[in-house]
Amino acid sequence: MKLAVFDFDSTLMDGETIEFLAEKIGIKKQIKEITEKAMKGEIDFFESLQYRVSLLKGLEVQTVNEICENLPEMNGAKETIAELKKMGYKVICFSGGFRNATEPFARRIGLDADFANILHTKNNILTGLVGGEMMFNCSKGDMLKRLQNILGVKAQDTLVVGDGANDLSMFRYASKKVAFCAKSILKAKANIVIDNKDLSLILEKIGV
């Protein structure tokens, strides 16, 4: 068995989920600036996530889900996942974003599993709080190592793909480290760099 783990926002999905949500309430520019700093590693991911989600307080869950059901796929995403699965990979998504987005997306493009955070709600309204399994800079690496132990997959059979600083912790546990349209902090540690928005270019780089 082989394991392929993809970041979600700006990797499998063309954009940032939280910015699509923020646009609905007119704060996209404010959210975008914070997200950009977090992805560059300039500010702590956990703190930035908490703050950005707090700004979404009051948004209706139905609105969130409607937006998340219609997020755009990155060019080549579906084809790349299908090809990797033919090669014997389990294909999984790790997201510092939200299950509202990753769960329907995973069904749509054929992922084996998705791991993300959960937006806290009361009476079908966002409270501005968030919790879950992908809250910290180290979270993706920790989860990857646990999955490898469960599935019996070694680093040499692991492919990881991301674009930002919170994807860096995965690189330690994978032989194929892909920086996809990524920030400099991730490119510096990658052994595969793709600067065009087409995920199928990964297949060329790994010799498919």
Please tell me about this protein's structure.
- Helix 1 packs antiparallel against helix 2 and helix 2 (28-39) runs antiparallel to helix 3 (45-54).
- The mean pLDDT is 96.
- It is built from ten helices and seven strands.
- It is of the alpha/beta class.
- The radius of gyration is 16 Å and the shape is globular.
- It starts with a strand and ends with a helix.
Offer a quick outline of the entry:
This protein has ten helices and seven strands. The chain has helices at residues 17-24, 28-39, 45-54, 61-68, 77-86, 99-109, 139-151, 168-171, 184-187, 201-205; strands at 2-7, 89-98, 113-122, 125-132, 158-162, 176-180, 192-194.
CATH superfamily: HAD superfamily/HAD-like
Give the count of helical stretches. Answer: 10
Percent of residues in helical segments? 40-55%
Instruction: Give Rg in angstroms.
Output: 16 Å
In the CATH hierarchy, the architecture is 3-Layer(aba) Sandwich
Secondary-structure element order, N to C:
EHHHHHEHEEHEHEHEH
Low-confidence stretches: none
End-to-end Cα distance: 17 Å
Structural class: alpha/beta
Main beta-sheet strand count, sense and barrel state: 7 strands, mixed
Estimate nothing, just give the exact number of structural domains: 1
The whole-number mean of residue pLDDT values reads 96
Shape: globular
Count all strands and give the number.
Answer: 7
What's the SSE blueprint?
Blueprint lengths: L1 E6 L9 H8 L3 H12 L5 H10 L6 H8 L8 H10 L2 E10 H11 L3 E10 L2 E8 L6 H13 L6 E5 L5 H4 L4 E5 L3 H4 L4 E3 L6 H5 L3
